[in-house]
Amino acid sequence: MSEQILVTRSSIPTLEEYIEEIRPIFASHWLTNMGAKHKQLQAELCTYLGVENIELLTNGHMALELTLQAMNLQGEVITTPFTFASTTHAIVRNGLTPVFCDINPDDFTIDTAKLEALITDRTCAILPVHVYGNVCSIEEIDRIARKYGLKVIYDACHTFGETYRGKSTACFGDASCFSFHATKVFNSIEGGAVCFRDKKLGSILYELKNFGIRGPEDVVSVGANAKMNEFCAAMGLCNLRHVDSEIARRKAVYERYVERLDGVDGLRLNRIQEHVKPNYAYFPVIFEEKVFGASREEVFDKLGANGIIARKYFYPLTNTFTAFHGKFDVSLTPNALHISKRVLTLPMYADLGLDVVDRICDVILSCRG
Ligand code: T4K
After folding, report:
1. 205, 238, 271: which is the final residue of a domain?
2. Please, what sign has the CA dihedral across residues 156, 157, 158, 161?
3. In terms of C-beta density within 10 A (0-12 exposed, 13-18 middle, 19 or more buried), how is residue 107 classed?
4. Fewer beta carbons below 10 Å: N end or C end of the chain?
5. What is the CATH classification number for the domain harbouring 262?
6. In a domain, 3, yes or no
7. Residue 131 CA: which ligand 1 atom is closest?
8. Residue 220 shares a structural domain with residue 355
């Protein structure tokens, strides 16, 4: 059997390019703790994303977790369950209570029409997710947050390289958290970043990612260790040079999928939103079994039998996790439940050949009743 096709494949530079990038690290013996590569990546990301304030971290999860800690929040955080475990865990690990809002059935982001009703006198923040790179209703979230004096922290882990109305998705809310994990459109092997509005948040984050150390003899907060090391920063520097062309190659994959699957009864594809320059991070498809003639599970299995490993991002919903057994009522997020039972994210990466996309689509279409 030919090699398996996985849901994604990390973008990497040539070995030679990476070796050139890490050569100075070998010369200096400076491996971590905010070294030269860390500083350079920070500066280059500010330019690329069009932001003034950024902190680099070990991963997207620590970006979320430490941002919530840095804001010194207490009480309830309104978020969505249609996301990766990290979003909800970051809230719970801060001693905060997640309050789950349903999602829009069209773009899978938080449904702002249902958000306001969830606000109580314990609500301190909103943590929406730009899921699959679909941008949340920025203006409406902003309006609600201002009205009730709430912080807004975007989980922007899926949106690297995207713009909304010409502005990078790093610019919205009080803070936007990115993941630079190996599986992301832009990776630094493992890595993450927070872009934020208030410079003061940056100095708190800087300390929190280094045990709360302010100076050699002064520890001012109970921080973690979440510093991006020099080898990860070097990978980030290499990948940043190529990210725009990687996104362009993803676009070709996206277009081939759309050409083959759009208009098929019982399949719903993810639409590119108005005013958004997308990054083609994921290719989710919703399978409506009765119309399509096969369930998500049947398609998943048949793809698997053909060596194609699609994924059920994001199933199960985080409010149904065993870890939270009995704590949350999933019937309050019916759209999220509906979508999570029917979604399959198909292989999507820059190197994916269009002939392979055709093969994947052939298998999917052969599942019809
Ligand atoms: N918020 C959101 C909305 C997120 O989606 C994520 C992460 C986070 C926060 C937290 O950010 P990080 O702390 O992770 O930076 C993967 C990723 O590990 C995770 O980063 C990502 N979301 C999530 C959606 O997907 P898994 O458990 O599905 O990964 P895994 O190991 O099964 O990999 C998926 C595929 O990627 C593999 O089949 C092949 C490919 N791959 C994987 C690795 C590890 C590569 O090509 N190279 C690699 O090195 O979670």
Report:
1. 238
2. positive
3. buried
4. N
5. 3.90.1150.10
6. no
7. 3
8. no
Q: Rounded to whole angstroms, how far apart are CA atoms 36 and 30?
A: 8
**296, pLDDT greater than 90:** yes
Residue 315 C-alpha to ligand 1 middle, in angstroms?
14
Helices (H) and strands (E) in the chain, counts: 12, 15
pLDDT category of residue 324 using cuts at 50, 70 and 90:
very high
CA of 6 to the centre of ligand 1 (A): 12
Residue 298 in any domain: the answer is: yes
Note the pLDDT of residue 273: 97
Alpha helix segments (H runs only) across the chain: 15-28, 36-49, 60-70, 85-92, 112-115, 138-148, 199-208, 230-261, 289-292, 296-305, 334-342, 354-365
Distance CA 130, CA 93 (A): 21
The string of pLDDT tens digits covering residues 163-211 is 999 999 999 999 999 999 999 999 999 999 999 999 999 999 999 999 9
Residue 150: which of 78, 89, 80 has the closest Cα?
78
pLDDT surpasses 70 at 1:
no
How far away, in angstroms, is 51 Cα from ligand 1 center? Answer: 25
Choose the residue to mutate in 183, 228, 239, 303 for probing ligand 1, maximizing ligand atoms within 8 Å of C-beta.
183
pLDDT tens, residue by residue, 62-73: 999 999 999 999
Q: What is the mean pLDDT of residues 280-296?
A: 97
Contacts of 350 (CB under 8 A, 6+ apart): 11, 245, 246, 247, 249, 250, 253
**Do 216 and 341 have their domain in common?**
no
